[in-house]
Amino acid sequence: MMSLLGDLIRLSPGLREDIRGDPSTAYERVTKFGGAERLELDWEWKVFGPLFAAAGFGVNPFRSGALFPDAENAFGAWGDSRSLDPAQVVEAAALLERTPFAALAPRLRDALVERDTVRVDYDFESPTYGQPLPPERIVTPVFSDERVEMYRIQLADRYDDLTGFFATAARHGECTIFWAA
After folding, report:
1. Which Gene3D superfamilies match (predicted)?
2. Could you give the CA distance from residue 49 to residue 63 in angstroms, rounded to a whole number?
3. Whole-structure pTM value
4. Is 176 part of a structural domain of the chain?
């Protein structure tokens, strides 16, 4: 399985539009953000995305919003970079704030299975490389209770970081941009 890191930045709507205006330099510009304006996630985003979807989050910090900088020039893993506008950031912040991680934890095993199920042919030698696998070749992992608990402990702190990041962005009327690389 590929290991992809995810990053979130928060920025003003005007700066986001300025960056969006030149898609050829967008990736270079957003990767220069640092400090409190940037939240670097390791593998956690790949679990949070399905967790938030399973919990019915109306705005999912990793799956909602507009492709960034646009549909033709989305960068990141599989072209999945996304931007939330200030109203979406406020909604995401409210969802994170009112949903303790403990309320999401019962869905953790399913999110891990979704993250790690192999549905694409990654065999470079295969004539179907990069294409969806037929149902009989899909590989679905199994997670022990101990392993799920290990993930729960690791994700709880990162959830607090994510909640604080979105609360700050909401207070400042900012947008967010997420990408994976």
Report:
1. YfbM-like super family (3.40.1760.10)
2. 6
3. 0.86
4. yes
Q: Range of 39's domain? A: 6-111+144-180
- Give tens-digit pLDDT for 14-65: 999 999 999 889 989 998 999 999 999 988 988 999 899 989 999 999 999 9
Residue 68 lies in a domain: yes
* Per-residue pLDDT tens digits for 14-23: 999 999 999 8
Which residue's entry shows tokens 């999401």? 104
By C-alpha distance, which of 91, 87, 68, 75 is closest to 18? 68
Domain count, the chain: 1
Q: Beta strand 66-67 with 82-84: parallel, antiparallel or unpaired?
A: antiparallel
Type of residue numbered 110 = D
Does residue 62 lie in a domain region?
Answer: yes
How far from each other are the two terminal CA atoms of the chain, in whole angstroms? 14
Burial group, residue 3, by CB count within 10 angstroms (0-12, 13-18, 19+): exposed
From edge to edge, which strands make up the β-sheet containing 66-67? Answer: 38-41, 6-11, 175-180, 82-84, 66-67
Residue 39, domain CATH: 3.40.1760
Residue 123 located in a structural domain:
no
Provide the 3-class DSSP secondary structure of residue 66: strand
User: What span, in angstroms and rounded, lies between the C-alpha atoms of 108 and 133?
Assistant: 25
